[in-house]
C-alpha cells in the first residue's frame, strides 16, 4: 500500500488502518512498477500513478501522462472516448478516478492487441490454405527447377 508516497507493508495476519485526513492512497493491487510497465497504456498508468503519489513532481508526471495519452490516441483512435475521460479527470485534478479510467484503457488496449493477433493468425492460416490449394490444383505434380 502506498499512502502519500510512503510504502506501507502489512507484516502480520490482521491489520487495520484508519486514515483520518485527506491522503493519496493506492492499494498494492493498484500499484504498477516500472519493471512490469510493458505497454503504451501501462505507461500512461505509471505516469499518472506517479503524479498521484508524488505531489512534488506532479506537474512533470502530468505532462508525461498527457504525452503518453496523446501518442496513444494517435496510434489507437478507437480509444478516444476513454482518453478524453482520463483527460477530464486530470483537468479536474481527480487523479484517482483518472487512474481507475486508465484501467479501462488497458482493457481496451488488450482487446485491440487480441484482435490484431487474431487477424494475423487468420492471415497466416489463409496463406497456408492458399498454398495448399495451389499444390492441389497442380494435379499433385511437384516441379523441380534446376537453375544451373
What's this model, at a glance?
This protein has 148 residues and is mainly alpha-helical. The protein is built from 4 helices and 3 strands, in the order βββαααα. The chain has one domain.
Can you offer a commentary on this structure?
It is elongated and about 75 Å long. It has one domain. It has a 3-stranded antiparallel β-sheet with strand order 2-1-3, with no helix packed on it. The longest helix has 43 residues. The model has no long low-confidence stretch (mean pLDDT 82). With 148 residues, the protein is mainly α. 19% of the residues are buried. The protein starts with a strand and ends in an 11-residue tail after the last helix. Helices cover 59% and strands 4% of the residues.
Enumerate how many helices there are, as a single number.
4
What's the main sheet like? 3 strands, antiparallel
From N to C, what is the helix and strand string? EEEHHHH
Regions with little confidence, pLDDT below 50 for 5+ residues:
none
- State the secondary-structure class: mainly alpha
Helix amount: 55-70%
Output the strand order for the largest sheet: 2-1-3
* N/C terminus separation: 71 Å
Cα radius of gyration in angstroms? 24 Å
- Which overall shape is indicated by the principal axes computed on the Cα atoms? elongated
Write down the domain tally. Answer: 1
Percent in strands: under 5%
Mean pLDDT across residues:
82
Q: How many strands appear in the DSSP assignment?
A: 3
Amino acid at each position: 500500500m502506498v499512502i502519500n508516497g510512503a510504502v506501507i507493508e502489512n507484516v502480520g495476519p490482521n491489520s487495520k488502518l484508519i486514515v483520518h485526513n485527506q491522503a493519496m492512497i493506492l492499494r498494492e493491487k493498484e500499484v504498477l512498477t516500472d519493471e512490469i510497465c510493458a505497454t503504451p497504456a501501462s505507461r500512461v498508468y505509471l505516469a499518472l500513478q506517479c503524479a498521484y503519489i508524488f505531489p512534488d513532481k506532479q506537474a512533470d508526471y502530468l505532462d508525461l501522462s498527457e504525452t503518453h495519452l496523446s501518442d496513444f490516441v494517435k496510434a489507437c483512435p478507437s480509444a478516444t472516448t476513454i482518453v478524453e475521460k482520463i483527460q477530464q479527470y486530470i483537468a479536474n485534478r481527480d487523479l484517482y478516478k483518472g487512474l481507475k479510467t486508465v484501467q479501462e484503457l488497458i482493457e481496451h488496449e488488450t482487446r485491440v492487441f487480441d484482435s490484431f493477433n487474431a487477424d494475423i493468425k487468420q492471415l497466416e492460416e489463409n496463406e497456408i490454405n492458399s498454398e495448399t490449394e495451389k499444390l492441389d490444383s497442380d494435379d499433385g505434380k511437384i516441379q523441380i527447377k534446376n537453375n544451373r
